[in-house]
Amino acid sequence: MLKRWGSALIFVAGSVVGGLALAFLIVALRPDLIRGPAHDPGPAAPAADRALPGPERATYAAAVQRAAPSVVNIYTERRVTERVAPSLGELFGDYMPRYRQRIERSLGSGVIVDEGGHIVTNQHVIANADSIRVQLADGRVADARIVGRDPDTDLAVLKIDLKALPVATFGRSDQLRVGDVVLAIGNPIGLSQTVTHGIVSFTGRQQLGIAPLEDFIQTDAPINFGNSGGALIDSSGALIGINTAIVAKNIGVEGIGFAIPVNMVRGVMADIIAHGRVVRGWIGIVPQDLSDEQAQQWGLSQAGVLIGNLYVGSPAQQAGLQPGDLLLAIDGVAPSSAQDALGRIAGHKPGSSIVLRGLRGRRVFELRAQVGERPRSG
Questions:
Q1: Domain span at residue 127?
Q2: In this structure, are 357 and 288 located in the same domain?
Q3: How far is it, in rounded angstroms, from Cα 144 to Cα 134?
Q4: Same domain, yes or no: 190 and 148
Q5: Do the Cβ atoms of 306 and 314 come closer than 8 Å?
Q6: Coil, strand, or helix at residue 345?
Q7: What are phi and psi of 277, to 5 degrees?
Q8: Same domain assignment for residues 121 and 177
Q9: Residue 12, pLDDT score
């Protein structure tokens, strides 16, 4: 009996020792089995939701936030009187002309340029308007009065009487390069604060027939009906132009818009605010562009500017200039085109004088002309 109990104890002891040895081996190989559960991070995120490394997102949000509050919507109304067509019965009896009136509404954009409430827009936006209302980006609405207009550049200045106005930051249009990023902000088809994006396609674009004095920035940033008078800004949010026109889409042209450079806007705006009009120099010439072929006939290496006509009694005629003269230089600088010649003369103050160098036949001459004031157009 004792012998049997001893065998049982030996068997139990061996089993215990074997079990402990097995447990020790398991713990040595998998210690995490006896540790407390760590913080459960939850199921792993799907691969599609994990952030992937890459370049920072390109955005012009800061530029828009800086410039957009100063861009306003302009709503105009004018009363139009039109003749009523006679009825069939009236055609066979006594007919007295009848007329009716209707309200014609239009829209555009503008830019607040100072805390005094002056707004720059296009002259064609407010032309013939009987009433003008301005809506700010913050929702405020005010009636506007016309301070002055300049049809020569298609610019106008309005004024509203509101306080705490957001004012545009002026940039430098003379530092623009083809390929620079630009943004157009305005009120196309009544969709206020619309922003479109493009680049500068050309600078100094002239002879488009949009205005007598042209020096446009060309851009492919979409400009639509209602954008006229709105802001063209650079990538920092600085105003570099006033959006003015697009090439007609009905002829299948896309991506060609024009803006008046802010350097021109500065001078026009300052004159209108100070004098109610723009004062420009004038000597009474009607210049014409000389083609390359015509220049070769004159023995010139490149195209130039021909004096096509003169106003009777004008400063140019009094100084001795004649139709048919070739204009070689204005104050020592050769004009690149007829419009460039007019622009250079317009930049002189009335009462000053300019030196003109020209070619008459084969004789080079030089004369001095007294600058008068450019007659107002429109």
A1: 63-159
A2: yes
A3: 7
A4: no
A5: no
A6: helix
A7: -160, 170
A8: no
A9: 47
Q: Is 154 a catalytic residue?
A: yes
**Is residue 140 located within the same domain as residue 201?**
no
Residue tagged active-site, from 70, 109, 118, 124 = 124
Block residue for tokens 């132009």: 241
Of the residues 275, 292, 314, which one is the last residue of a structural domain?
A: 275
Tell me the per-residue pLDDT of 126-164, one tens digit each, with 9 for 90 and over.
998 999 999 999 999 999 999 999 998 999 999 999 999
Which letter does DSSP use for residue 131 in this model?
E
Total residues belonging to the chain: 378
Give the Å distances, CA to CA, from 328 to 4, 204, 311.
Answer: 135, 20, 20
Identified catalytic residue from 150, 152, 154, 234: 154
Is 292 designated active site?
A: no
Among 228, 234, 325, 340, which one carries the catalytic annotation? 228
Q: What confidence tens digit (pLDDT) does each residue in 222-275 have?
A: 888 888 999 999 999 999 999 998 776 666 667 789 999 999 999 999 999 998
Residue 329: burial class (beta carbons within 10 Å; 0-12, 13-18, 19+): middle
Last residue in a domain, options 245, 275, 305: 275
